[in-house]
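dumping this here so i dont lose it
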């Protein structure tokens, strides 16, 4: 019998056709396979039992990078064919299926890397159809070697033979290379034979090394070297924000952090994100790696170069983005050498260009599920589908901090890589270039452009500059709600507790503690945190003690000793009282700031969310008490109780825990009263594990369904996707 099977999903550029070729050969089926606009088409001919076995194994044993979403089969007349062939694709194949994310070195390539008899022994660019760089080297479509940054490297005969052989695991592996024909690594200014060994020696001696990775330059040093880590911090002008670590292997990672099943799964996954996990007491890291943080961010090597370097150093390294303070990570060679010259003692570089800058992704496990904090390398550009397909092509411009963009066509949406804060020329350029790149890669020509309500965001202005498109403004917290619904394939209605730092409200004030009832199309605001002033405006974001003033004024409470001795106290309280230069906010993020300042945990921040992170870290894990806070989310009484406890000498850990418990209980109560069966918890504040786990448990114990962002960050990195979901639903 002969069957035609149409396979849909991520099945192109992932070794699917050679896989089909091998499977058919193994089962003695004849026929052919080819890519077309919608995926892969296979025809197989053999006895009924063989064909059935073929169809069972086809989705089940698909190559690791493939994602089979659907297989549709129909019988066709037998042709008496013999042999199995891979047929050239008809023109006009859909480009969207062709670009997969960058993927960690696979087990087979690793074996070759460390096998002295292999021709790629210690070759830092070994890769195959199942692993290696993809998104970061793609310049255009179709995804073919000339349109990648491998274009300048001509394959040698041996590599070309692998590339051309359907039975070879490097069949059509676009970045295929070997020491004879591919990219080379070198240590700048050194003529060492083995650049990686020389770099490893420098690292072991305490040097700071710039390393060109997959999506950009990293800065590396020994994680256990107090002087080196402190010097790196000083030279990078990075005060407190924790540094990520790369451990040589899982055993070494276990010595750094406590790893549950979920964390280990994330750590070894082919996306290889940075996994935030609880620091082990006595972890062998310098104190400057993550000051005051109970967690460490750890990842495992993901490129052959990292594998070689880490195997050689055999110690955990700090591996942080190659930049000065908040600039975007450097990825162009000359620019990197210029910008990092004052930081790095040595440069380990190579000559394979990076086309798209991508940062490492960051993820945390909460209650046994992944919670994405930064979605970039390894995950981008995998599509995240929309529950309501976009009738016209959509571009969504996102927010301003932790910015991403999103393009959508039909039911597919592609969220771009993490761009960072859209505050300077470099990030704005990365944003606009990224959008153009995605438009080409995925054949999206936006007719609808969604943007934030905030009139002054650069992303909003960018949207307004697009000509001949329909503009759709989406309220910030509605976008958070929609993003979470849509990634779970839902359309609502639901009630959402959306807590974050800042979002422009429909009334022009600063929202950030919102209870919304809504669906993908619209929402109503059914509650909000009690509004207070932000004394001095933006300054109150950098200086949480100002928010402490505002809340004390609102609660009519006397300042505790932690804050009343502070210079400027009277003046700032005056601003809060009169409202001069002090906009009104309902932000829960700012309430966390205020309590952190009252507790003396932090009165000024030097990275976003720092006060809340340190307040969470301070929590006494066993404290079960809670301050008074009702479902009306008016924390004035709570603030009074915090001050009273502090005056009484109650420990900061207990105060912090009672505060978290109160917010969780009040949120659960408020959501329950809304009377919807489904609750969404989203917004950057819910990156807080204690708050999220408690709120979720309380809601679930009352029989409510709780949806939490998983594949996209709860913070503003998910906003663009939420805007796209709203735009698609509204233009239906
Ligand atoms: Zn491989
Ligand atoms: Zn070669
Ligand atoms: Fe937000």
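and the seq i came up w/
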């Amino acid at each position: 019998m002969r069957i035609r099977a149409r396979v849909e999903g991520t099945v192109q550029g992932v070794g699917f056709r050679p896989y089909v070729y091998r499977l058919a050969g193994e089962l003695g089926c004849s026929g052919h396979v080819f890519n077309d606009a919608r995926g892969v088409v296979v025809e197989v001919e053999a006895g009924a039992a063989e064909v059935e076995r073929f169809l069972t194994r086809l989705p089940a044993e698909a190559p690791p990078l493939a994602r089979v979403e659907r297989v549709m089969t129909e019988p066709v007349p037998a042709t008496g064919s013999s042999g199995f062939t891979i047929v050239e694709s008809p023109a006009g194949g859909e480009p969207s299926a062709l670009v997969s994310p960058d993927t960690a070195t696979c087990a087979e390539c690793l074996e070759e890397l460390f096998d002295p008899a292999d021709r790629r022994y210690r070759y830092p660019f070994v890769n195959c159809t199942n692993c290696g760089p993809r998104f970061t080297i793609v310049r255009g479509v179709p995804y073919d070697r000339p349109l990648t940054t491998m274009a300048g490297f001509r394959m040698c005969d041996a590599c070309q033979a692998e590339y051309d052989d359907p039975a070879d695991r490097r069949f059509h592996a676009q970045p295929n290379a070997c020491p004879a024909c591919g990219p080379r690594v070198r240590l700048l200014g050194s003529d060492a034979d083995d650049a990686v060994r020389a770099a490893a020696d420098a690292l072991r001696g305490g040097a700071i090394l710039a390393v060109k990775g997959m999506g950009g330059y990293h800065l590396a040093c020994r994680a256990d070297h107090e002087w080196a880590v402190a010097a790196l911090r000083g030279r990078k002008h990075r005060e407190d924000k924790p540094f990520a670590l790369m451990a040589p292997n899982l055993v070494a990672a276990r010595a750094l952090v406590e790893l549950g099943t979920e964390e280990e799964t994330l750590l070894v996954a082919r996306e290889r994100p940075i996994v935030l996990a609880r620091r082990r007491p006595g972890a062998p890291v310098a104190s400057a790696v993550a000051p005051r943080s109970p967690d460490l961010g750890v990842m495992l090597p993901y490129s052959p170069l990292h594998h070689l370097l880490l195997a050689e150093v055999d110690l955990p390294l700090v591996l942080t983005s190659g930049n000065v303070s908040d600039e975007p990570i450097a990825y162009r060679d000359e620019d990197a050498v210029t910008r990092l010259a004052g930081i790095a003692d040595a440069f380990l570089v190579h000559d394979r260009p990076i086309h798209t800058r991508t940062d490492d992704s960051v993820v945390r496990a909460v209650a046994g599920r992944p919670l994405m904090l930064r979605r970039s390398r390894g995950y981008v550009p995998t599509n995240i589908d929309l529950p309501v397909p976009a009738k016209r092509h959509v571009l969504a411009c996102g927010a301003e901090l932790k910015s991403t963009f999103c393009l959508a066509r039909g039911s597919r949406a592609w969220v771009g890589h993490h761009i960072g804060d859209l505050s300077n020329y470099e990030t704005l350029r990365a944003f606009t270039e990224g959008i153009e790149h995605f438009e080409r890669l995925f054949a999206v020509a936006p007719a609808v452009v969604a943007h934030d309500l905030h009139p002054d965001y650069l992303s909003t202005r960018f949207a307004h500059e697009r000509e001949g498109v329909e503009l759709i403004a989406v309220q910030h917290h509605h976008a958070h709600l929609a993003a979470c619904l849509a990634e779970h394939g839902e359309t609502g209605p639901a009630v959402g507790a959306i807590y974050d730092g800042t979002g422009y409200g429909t009334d022009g004030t600063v929202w950030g503690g919102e209870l919304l009832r809504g669906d993908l199309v619209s929402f109503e605001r059914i509650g909000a945190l009690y509004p207070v002033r932000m004394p001095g405006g933006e300054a109150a974001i950098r200086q949480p003690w100002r928010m402490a003033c505002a809340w004390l004024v609102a609660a009519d409470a006397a300042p505790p000793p932690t804050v009343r001795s502070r210079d400027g106290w009277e003046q700032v309280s005056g601003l809060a009282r009169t409202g001069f230069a002090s906009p009104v906010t309902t932000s829960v993020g700012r309430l966390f700031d205020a309590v952190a300042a009252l507790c003396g945990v932090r009165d000024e921040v030097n990275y976003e969310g720092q006060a809340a992170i340190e307040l969470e870290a301070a929590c006494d894990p066993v404290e079960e008490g809670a301050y008074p806070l009702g479902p009306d989310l008016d924390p004035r009484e709570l603030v009074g109780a915090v001050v009273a406890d502090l005056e009484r000498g109650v420990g900061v850990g207990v105060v912090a825990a009672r505060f978290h418990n109160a917010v969780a209980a009040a949120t659960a109560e408020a959501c329950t009263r809304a009377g919807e069966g489904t609750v969404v918890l989203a917004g950057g504040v819910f990156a807080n594990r204690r708050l999220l786990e408690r709120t979720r448990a309380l809601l679930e114990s009352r029989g409510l369904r709780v949806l939490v962002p998983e594949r996209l960050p709860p913070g503003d990195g998910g906003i663009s996707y939420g805007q796209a979901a709203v735009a698609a639903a509204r233009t239906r």
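The chain has 23 helices and 26 strands.
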